[in-house]
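Subgroup meeting minutes
Present: P.N., E.W., G.H.
Scribe: E.W.

1. P.N. recapped why we're keeping a running log of single-chain structure predictions: easier to compare across weeks, and new members can see raw inputs and outputs side by side.
2. G.H. added today's entry (167 aa).
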Amino acid sequence: FHVVLPFDGKMAEQTERAYQKQGPIFQNSKSVLLGGGKKKKEQRFVRNVGLGFKTPREASEGTYIDKKCPFTGNVSIRGRILTGIVKSKKMKRTVVIRRDYLHYIRKYNRFEKRHKNLSAHLSPCFRDIELGDLVVVGQCRPLSKTVRFNVLKVQKAKGGKKQFQKF
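Output recorded in log:
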């Protein structure tokens, strides 16, 4: 379900050359145009993505605009839910996630370690993400050439020596 929340903070962050706004929010009400008496609170569009994932507080209380955010933008989560470790966050609003797994070799009756890298969109509501954090990503429509997943949850990394994670 969708929720439009009244919002106390300042106007949305304008960091791009194009004007950034949330699609479902109507900004030109007559009371604003005619200089109505009361100052109304800013509105903010927030969505519950479902599947048992809680909407972060920063998504409902923040001022960022991100059309690819699963909580405040126009992206639905469907398909696979995967986990991985953050390996790179050099791109703007995108992280590279490493997924480790074991591959069985029948001849030697043993397993070998393998990994795959996956690009995922990182919403600005997850501000304090670090390298090595465990993230849960959900599949969505293609957001760019390589990005087909969106970060839904972040678990802080445990302090320890570097190793083949998840095992």
